[in-house]
Amino acid sequence: MNKVAEAGNTGPNVRSDCYVKLTLKENGGTHIELKSKVESMYGNSIRALANKALSYFGIENALLEITDSGALEHVIMARIEAAVKQLINTELEFLPNLLPENDYESNKEQFRFHRLYLPGNTPSMMINAGIHKPHGLILDLEDSVAPTKKAEALLLVRNTLRALRFYGAEKMVRINQGEKGIEELKYLIPHNVNLLLIPKCESGDYINKVNAEIEQINQKYGLRKPVFLMPIIESAIGIEKAFEIASAASNIAALAIGLEDFTADLGVSRTIDGTESLYARTRLVNACKAAGIQAIDSVFSDVGDMEGLYSTVRKSKSLGFEGMGCIHPRQIPVIEKAFAPDSLEIEKACKIVAAFNEASKKGLGVVSLGTKMIDAPVVKKAQKNIQLALQLKLLSPDWLIEYSQN
Question: What sign does the CA torsion over 247, 248, 249, 252 have?
Answer without folding.
Answer: negative
